[in-house]
Amino acid sequence: MQMTGVNQHTAILDEPIKGKPLVRNYINGEWIESKGEIRDVVNPATGEAIAQVPISTKEEVDAAVAAAQEAFPTWRTTTPLARSRCLFRLKGLLEEHFEELSRIQTQEHGKTIDESRGETRRGIENVEVACGIPTLMQGYHSEDIANGMDEWVIRTPLGVFGIIGPFNFPFMIPLWSAPYAVATGNCVIIKPSSEVPLSQMKLAELVDEAGFPPGVWNVVNGGRTVVSTILEHSGISGVTLVGSTPTAKYVYERCGATGKRAIAQGGAKNFMVIMPDCDVRRTVAAMMTSFFGNTGQRCLAGANLLIVGEDDSFYKSFMGMVIAAAKKIIIGYGLDESVQMGPVRDAEKKANIIRYIEKGIHEGANLILDGRNPTVKNSLPLDTFLGPTIFENVTPDMTIAKAEIFGPVMSVMRAKTLDDAIEMCNASPFGNGDAIFTTSGKYAREFQYRIVSGNVGINVGVTAPVAFFPFSGMKDSFFGILHTQGQEAVRFFTESKVIIQRWF
Amino acid sequence: MRLNTASVTVGFAKKLEDDSARFYEGLAAQNPANSVVLLSLAKENRRCATDIERAYYGVITDAIESCFTFDIDTEKYSFTFDMPVSGGLKQAVAMEERILAFYEEAAEQSRSLMCDVPRAFGLAAKKRAQRIGRLKALAGQ
After folding, report:
1. Is the pTM of this model over 0.90?
2. pLDDT in tens, A427-443
3. 3-class secondary structure per residue, A263-314
């Protein structure tokens, strides 16, 4: 028998979701079938309905809030160490189910398996950070603030929080908030996107197995009714949301009106600023991830490529490499390990992106790579697939330079100087994740100092902060004061109680 | 065939380790005098596969270039062998030289990823270089 060491693993990995299960709500430690309308959850790569999700009713949200309120007094008196042990057990279970969780994300969302594993890892990192809650939520103390008087601050939990997730990172984004909320002694109600509810269901199963008391962690599936009930409910102390800018703004306004604290993360239009002295090979690879990773469906995706300087030969050579790399991207089902870019989430989103591409052509930009009819590996239905799309000669006034397209579209612009480039970036109403690529410390320092953006990259194309740093945002990309992740999340989910003491 | 993503590259490394472990197990059966050494190499192969996989799963993040880092032509590193193994230690040396070259290229190309991944490939390459010396000594080369 002849053996070989070159068989490449390009078969489709096994799909964990089988048999079109009906998703149930997880309320008060029990799996409850919703009375709401049922919709299909569709795998965007294959077009197959892989599960069913309920659109839950107001009464079901009310039941979850009641369960969370009932669980809160006991949970807040559970010691931080004991709460952290629940999180340690959850962390162990997440590692055990790492691959299953990742494949579920690819099945429900369409992203590649490398991207899903990256998302799983980043979600777990937030659980790991929240495990440190006994020290993270400590207050501080001063002796003798006046004669015989001491003063100190303790951080107390607030009650019940709503966590509203988007479709683009179904597993990770609720974990920017939930571990910190429960670690600090609060209870949560998570509303996953109804398009991608499956990884949150698996997560809730693991939460249950980890031994969180009933009512501490609840999941209610659905759409607008669930969101508006959370926003208006007097039993909810605060809300975190990641969504589009109009939604984030609305949520922030409603939270203000109903006396809730809020973290509302909105949309973006990120600039990748390329200096002629950059490390070209590594910058081009970073551009592929930035613009085309997650098929452009992320609030930290590159959208505008801004090349600085009047050196046409650098511009031509850099763009030549970008176009060549983009043309080589393999598109297909993310459970094929050789696929580099999956579909967009659904046909409607694809149609919306195509409308932007057509607008770009109409407004006079030069379409140099057209992704509207891509070659897709393994002859999958084309309803949701788009290829990398690149426009040159884009001007700041064009729609494709201003609007959040949320797809694999790169708009290339030029700026004469770094000053001009920073001005162009800062003219955008968004301020989420802008980056510079350079080998000059002076340029990098100048950029990070002057740019009005929450997450700034220096030779990093996706400026996603790790779990122990806040996920920031400025201008129309963020509404709120404190942010998700790390210490800021701990502060968001707690109130400072100040004690001033004197003994007679 | 080309390796283009981190996932498929790690999968290929694992396959190389599994195949070469089976090679050493076959070779050990035919060389009782050297079987202890050869079986230890097979064991080391499986450990190496675990180390690489652990590094990948431990630090992978969606925010770096895991889908766009690699461009490796597997043809350069392919090897075939017959079962039962023929050619003995000389064939082992030739196989190890190809695996060493693969790990060196993988370490070089994965420098955009978190340092754990290129370090795991680099350590695998270093062990391979040491192993080639031991195999050559065993073969009397």
Report:
1. yes
2. 999 999 999 999 999 99
3. EEECCCCEEEEECCCCCHHHHHHHHHHHHHHHHHCCCCCEEEEEEECCCHHH
